[in-house]
Amino acid sequence: KAAAAAARESAAQESAAKKAASDQAKAEKASAAKAAKPSRAPAGKAAGQAAAEQAAAEAAAAEQAAAEAAAAREAFLKTPEGKKEVANQAAAAKKAAAEQARAEKDAGAA
């Protein structure tokens, strides 16, 4: 049970990391789209286009890095060390839950 909870927690952390990277990529793409809007000055338009292309490239790189990090984490969790880490997280979660239950019981008794 605890191992499953730790695995869910790990998956939730992974999901949060992916979402953060995705949100960052979306923000950078939006910024790039804004920068790419034609301006009245031709020089500004060229600079805006270059900035948009760079922002899009950075967004793609951030998305790729997030995907690679998630894949590496997933691969690590399949190794003996990763399984040990999941077990340790589960034990820590179980201990924290027991301590909280004890504290609530003590607070209720007082």
Describe it for me?
- The chain has 110 residues and is mainly α.
- The chain has one domain.
- Helices cover 92% and strands 0% of the residues.
- α1 packs antiparallel against α2.
List the helices and strands and how they pair.
Elements: H1 2-36, H2 42-77, H3 80-109
Biased composition (Basic and acidic residues): 16-31, 101-110
Biased composition (Low complexity): 1-15, 32-74, 87-100
Region (Disordered): 1-110
What is the subunit arrangement here?
Answer: single chain
Kindly, what is the distance between the CA atoms of the first and last residues, rounded to a whole number of angstroms?
31 Å
Mean pLDDT: 81
Q: Provide the low-confidence segments as ranges.
A: none
What overall geometry do the principal axes of the alpha carbons give? elongated
Structural class, judged by helices and strands? Answer: mainly alpha
**Gyration radius from CA atoms, angstroms:** 23 Å
- Largest β-sheet summary: none
Q: Give the % helix.
A: over 70%
The total tally of domains equals: 1
The string of secondary-structure elements, in order, is: HHH
**Residues in β-strands, percent:** under 5%
Question: How many beta-strand runs?
Answer: 0
Number of helices: 3
